[in-house]
């Protein structure tokens, strides 16, 4: 990082969300927010690249506890229900040869009712987390773990 960039980064102060931003986040969660990209209706799918489809499906199904919606081993992909109509979480076998870039893909974030309880349940199923849960009161708390290919996955809770 250049000295100028370091100085700029050091000068940035954390900013509390405005009431308008909080209201917008609320509208977004209920699906009422208008989007600015012409023709965009909603996010429909989040893909994560994997090297071993069977291992990834087993991890997300058995350890994370997601419900498998579709699996096509011949085509190299699967998807899981997310609890939100019209939004799926998909796995796709890395098609470009070589190893999947570790942690270089999307980071799915799953909202839970109680972050502490969800984390304990996953840890009991052998899912190791990266450090402690983080967040600021009045905003969101997050906890991060990784799938077998090193992709980051987060749990979040409004706090």
List the SSEs and their pairings:
Layout: H1 3-11, H2 19-29, E1 45-50, H3 53-63, E2 68-72, E3 77-84, E4 87-93, E5 109-111, H4 115-124, E6 134-135, E7 140-146, E8 152-158
Parallel strand pairs: 1-4, 5-8
Antiparallel strand pairs: 2-3, 3-4, 6-7, 7-8
User: What is the residue-mean pLDDT, rounded to a whole number?
Assistant: 77
Strand content: 25-35%
What is the string of SSEs from the N terminus onward? HHEHEEEEHEEE
Please mark out the parts with pLDDT under 50 across 5 or more consecutive residues, or reply none.
1-12, 24-30
The overall strand count is 8
Main sheet summary = 4 strands, mixed
How many angstroms does the end-to-end distance come to? 34 Å
Number of helices: 4
Radius of gyration: 18 Å
Shape field: globular
Question: Helix fraction?
Answer: 25-40%
* Oligomer description: single chain
Structural class: alpha/beta
Strand order of the largest sheet: 1-4-3-2
What does this structure look like?
With 159 residues, this protein is of the alpha/beta class. The chain contains 4 helices and 8 strands. A 4-stranded mixed beta sheet has the order 1-4-3-2, with helices on one face. Strands 5-8-7-6 form a 4-stranded mixed beta sheet, with helices on one face.
Structure at a glance:
It contains four helices and eight strands, in the order ααβαββββαβββ.
Give short descriptive properties of this protein.
single chain; 159 residues; alpha/beta; 4-stranded mixed beta sheet; 4 helices; 8 strands; 26% helix; globular; disordered N terminus
């Amino acid at each position: 990082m250049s000295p100028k960039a370091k100085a700029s980064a050091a000068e940035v102060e954390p900013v509390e969300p405005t009431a308008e931003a909080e209201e917008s986040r609320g509208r977004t969660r209920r699906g009422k927010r208008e989007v600015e990209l012409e023709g965009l209706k909603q996010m429909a799918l989040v893909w994560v690249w994997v090297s071993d489809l069977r291992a990834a499906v087993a991890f997300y199904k058995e350890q994370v506890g997601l419900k498998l919606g579709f699996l096509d081993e011949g085509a190299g992909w699967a998807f899981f229900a997310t609890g939100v109509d019209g939004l799926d979480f998909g796995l796709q076998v890395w098609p470009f040869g070589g190893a999947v870039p570790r942690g270089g893909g999307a980071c799915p974030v799953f909202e839970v009712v109680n972050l502490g309880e969800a984390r304990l349940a996953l840890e009991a199923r052998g899912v190791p987390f990266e450090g402690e849960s983080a967040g600021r009161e009045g905003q969101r708390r997050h906890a991060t773990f990784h799938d077998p290919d090193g992709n980051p996955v987060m749990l979040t809770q409004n706090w």
